[in-house]
Amino acid sequence: MNTMSLWHLTGWEFAALAFAALLVGFSKTAVSGANTVSLAIFAAVLPARASTGVLLPILIAGDLLAVLTYRRHAHWPTLWRLFPAVAAGVVAGTVFLMWADDGIVRTSIGAILLLMAGVTVWRRRRADTEDDPDRVTTRAGRAKARSYGVLGGFTTMVANAGGPVMSMYLLSAGFRKLGFLGTSAFFFLIVNTSKLPFSAGLGLIDADSLLLDAALVLFVVPGALLGRWAVSRINQRLFEQLVIAATVVGGVQLLIP
């Protein structure tokens, strides 16, 4: 029995999943948050809960490529302040998954993403200059890091949708393009890897899901190469607009039944 028959996939459905995997690679090295489209494709082709388990190893493959590409640009003070709050969010998300159905999960996360996109646009229009990422060391900066960290951990656990949440945080903290990509690359590699035992414990990752991952993961590489080529051709303002637009699209997709 091959992978497609195991998951009862048609040729078009497998092609859609392959495109979604390619888009994961692109989002990890170019426009973070765009992989919410991948999330929607996986959830449309596969059972919603099972899709999160299949997608997670694909995301980790993209994270590895992003770290290799942008490892010199990570801002570690921001990462260390985020991780404790993210851990709390992951635990909360695990508990939430024990009782919430797919409809509640999708609606909750979609609303969160749209709210954060609106807040970020409002903050960016009020600011005349970019904030300094080192401002995360202030009391307000630490409070913001904790709130975004909990939401990021929660959304990444329940639907692999933490990318847009952290994108909004990094934009609001004033990160430039390469610092944004380097910091988010390490963040998601560490967070997504830490989610593996939780997802396996919930039955979302098993031998069947890993077999499908093995067939899809190769499509992440060309997507990452395309993203690396594109990011040097995108200016800072367009980069921010694309990230926010991807977040809005992802939020709307999650709210549509």
Give me some keywords for this one.
single chain, mainly alpha, globular, 12 helices, 79% helix, 257 residues
Description:
The chain has 257 residues and is mainly alpha-helical. Helices cover 79% and strands 0% of the residues. It is built from 12 helices and no strands. The protein has helices spanning 3-6, 11-29, 35-45, 48-70, 76-97, 102-126, 139-159, 162-172, 177-201, 207-216, 220-231, 236-255. Helix 4 (48-70) crosses helix 11. The longest helix has 25 residues, at 102-126. The radius of gyration is 17 Å and the shape is globular. It starts with a helix and ends with a helix. The mean pLDDT is 82.
Unreliable stretches, pLDDT < 50, 5 or more residues? none
By secondary-structure content and strand pairing, the structural class works out as mainly alpha
Q: What is the number of helices?
A: 12
Backbone CA Rg: 17 Å
Q: What composes the largest sheet?
A: none
Determine the fraction of residues in helical runs and give it as a percent range. Answer: over 70%
Quote the distance from N terminus to C terminus.
Answer: 33 Å
Mean pLDDT: 82
Which geometry do the CA atoms define? globular
Strand content: under 5%
Total number of beta strands: 0
Order of helices and strands: HHHHHHHHHHHH
Write a concise synopsis of the structure shown:
With 257 residues, the chain is mainly alpha-helical.
